[in-house]
# Entry
Amino acid sequence: MSGFAKHIGLLLHWFFSSILLYPQNEFSYRVINENVFTYNLISEDTPVNPKNLLALSELETVNRFFPIGTFKKDRLTLQVEPRVFVDPISENIDFAFNELYVRYGISEAFYVTFGKERINWGTGTVWNPSNPFLQKDPFRLDNRLEGVFLTNLEYIFPRLTLNVLFSPSEKVNTSTLALKASSTIKSFDYSFNYAFLGNGRQQFACDFSLGTDNLTFYGEGLLRNFSNTGLVDPSGSITPIPQRNRWENVRSEFVLGSMLNTFIRTLLVLEYRYRSDFNTTNSIANFRSFLPGNLELYDPISMGRHSFFSQISYTDPYSKYNVNTSLFFDPITHQVLCSPGFIYNGENIKLEINPFIYGNSLSLYDIQGRVILSFFL
# Structure
């Protein structure tokens, strides 16, 4: 049995033993059942997927089951979020833990967290370059991504919060160590962080959010000594990333955005992303020439130096209905993705409808539609 599996088993044993032995403790749970239906109008002429080389199905359906439990006793908190994905068409079942961690307050200011946890650093709506762990799903408000196995030390000063995170790997030099300092001055929130991502890869980042009654302005930025973008040369080969990561060739990336309440219950979001280690015009031309062999470099949202995102949404007075439209645009590749959306929030039910309309020949689908029906207990 692996070390991680042993830790999971011990945490589960302690969790259920605590509930049985201490019934007076606080225990809360929520069961979420998501039924995801996806329709794909597959284009067989696109160079990304000629003659449906990827064997994509026209109709996909997945049942997602999230039984979420939280147990609290004095300064101790246990968070458990398993996930079960069932594909009734292929009859595949996938089981994992999105979150499974223990949090203990050594004092009123010092907390230790151990286990698998989601780390939601950053202020960006779509892109989060300052977050060394996870990225968000721009088409969903509910972040149900899988967490990271780590130890999180948090110390809360009167005007400053410090976090030290360590995510182990098989070797010490490939493990991740991240430090973050965050603070607030009136309506201005800001933070600075440093991350060592293993094999000499390092990054320095910051983010901020400035809010007023009708406008919120936010941003993120980083400097790193490595590249996560592979360029395609004229022979169709991907330029290998150097083994040594040094600061002589610094890469940068930043995101700027704003949220504006334009009318009553109407929100406008605008976001711009810049990255220095982008796919150049020549590299993208080479990329197109050697598809689908280099499909691992495909990005349906952005491939160039500049990327833009906008969204306008309206919510009714009782927050039951939300109508929105999202738009992505990459001026280098002329990629366009438009996604109108509708959300209904009932007492124990939620319905999400999102069509995705792709605007150029690189897209995997001309049109893609997703319906998510969720039940809550």
In short: Helices lie at 3-21, 281-289.
